[in-house]
Write a sequence for this structure.
């Protein structure tokens, strides 16, 4: 039973939330963010007819219910002491795209945008940490809107709230909407849940296949365009264009790459590790799958593996293996890059990371693997 004082707190928060001037501010913010996201999507090269953007303001009853939530770590305390400041989905936007790579492109565009400060990225369903193997799939990006959006300030004693942006493919969106509706119809029994699990697994597979088809078509188009240009300019046909459109090092491509190149190593269990090593690869200049594959080919993988399996206690997972490859290729420059990529607020890691990489580079040199 909910603490009566929590319910009174929530009722007071709802009255504060329902202030007409604050609701009008949320609507202005929603309209501004919708237009801004459409600009980002267009700049990312996604056709207008292959994406949808919509927004909604949280219903007062739903806000009140959330404001009464107890702290997950201490049920005797409120989770939100100042609900209009702390609840992050008062205003939520949803971007729906055709393909997984388009979702990743929008996520990247948001991360690089000056008007939106990304505070957290949640890949819902990507780690399958719940009891079901498949289920809800979506990327949730929590952002702080900046003054560059040009929205008028909120009413006195109110703050600009943190905003949630959901990113999905069309198929993920259909699944989520049907699953949400089934719960309200009382059809979410074990039999129906199993059917949703099967559908989610099929959707993931179809999304992957559609992406592969689009990548292949884009690659073929790029080759045709390059061939036509060479013929027009009197150049030899050439083997392939300078860059394959479908060869970009996306987060999805990185996961497949790690499993392909290091099949005997376990995947990383740390949240965000694959994105962490992808950023290191991109900053090292490897922005396509093929360029990263060539980097791996340029080193002696069995020798590197042997060096770091002897006398070490840490798990040698796929991310660690690729980190060693990038170190072998980049040498001291990679150590400097890795130090720059450490979170500015993590002083301990800022000191530890270069020291550990320096030791590992020394071991590679002693083994004659790198000069």
């Amino acid at each position: 039973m909910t603490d009566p004082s929590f319910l009174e707190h929530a009722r007071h928060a709802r009255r504060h939330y329902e202030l007409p001037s604050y609701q009008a501010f949320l609507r202005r913010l929603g309209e501004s963010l919708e237009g801004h996201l459409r600009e980002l999507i267009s700049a990312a090269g996604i056709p207008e007819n292959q994406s949808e953007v919509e927004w909604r303001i949280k219903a007062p009853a739903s806000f009140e219910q959330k404001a009464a939530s107890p702290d997950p770590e201490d049920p005797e305390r409120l989770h939100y002491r100042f609900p209009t400041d702390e609840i992050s989905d008062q205003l939520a936007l949803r971007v729906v795209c055709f393909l997984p790579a388009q979702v990743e492109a929008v996520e990247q565009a948001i991360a690089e945008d000056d008007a939106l400060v990304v505070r957290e990225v949640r890949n819902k369903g990507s780690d399958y940490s719940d009891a079901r193997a498949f289920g809800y799939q979506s990327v949730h990006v929590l952002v702080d809107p900046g003054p560059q959006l040009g929205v008028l300030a909120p009413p006195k004693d109110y703050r600009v709230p943190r905003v949630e942006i959901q990113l999905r493919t069309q198929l993920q969106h259909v699944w989520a909407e049907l699953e949400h509706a089934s719960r309200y119809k009382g059809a979410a029994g074990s039999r129906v849940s199993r059917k949703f699990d099967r559908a989610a697994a099929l959707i993931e597979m179809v999304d992957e296949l559609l992406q592969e088809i689009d990548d292949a078509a884009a690659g073929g188009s790029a080759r045709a365009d390059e061939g036509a240009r060479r013929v027009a300019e009197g150049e030899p046909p050439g083997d392939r264009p300078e860059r394959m459109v479908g060869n970009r090092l996306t987060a999805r491509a990185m996961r497949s790459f790690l499993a392909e190149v290091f099949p005997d190593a376990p995947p990383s269990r740390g949240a965000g590790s694959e994105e962490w090593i992808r950023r290191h690869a991109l900053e090292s200049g490897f922005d396509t799958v093929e360029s990263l594959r060539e980097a791996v080919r340029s080193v002696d993988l069995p020798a590197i593996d042997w060096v770091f399996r002897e006398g070490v206690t840490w798990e040698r997972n796929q991310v660690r293996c690729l980190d060693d490859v990038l170190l072998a290729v980049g040498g001291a420059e990679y150590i400097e890059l890795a130090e720059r990529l450490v979170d500015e607020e993590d002083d301990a890691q800022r000191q530890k990371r270069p020291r550990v990489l320096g030791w590992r580079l020394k071991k590679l040199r002693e083994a004659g693997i790198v000069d």
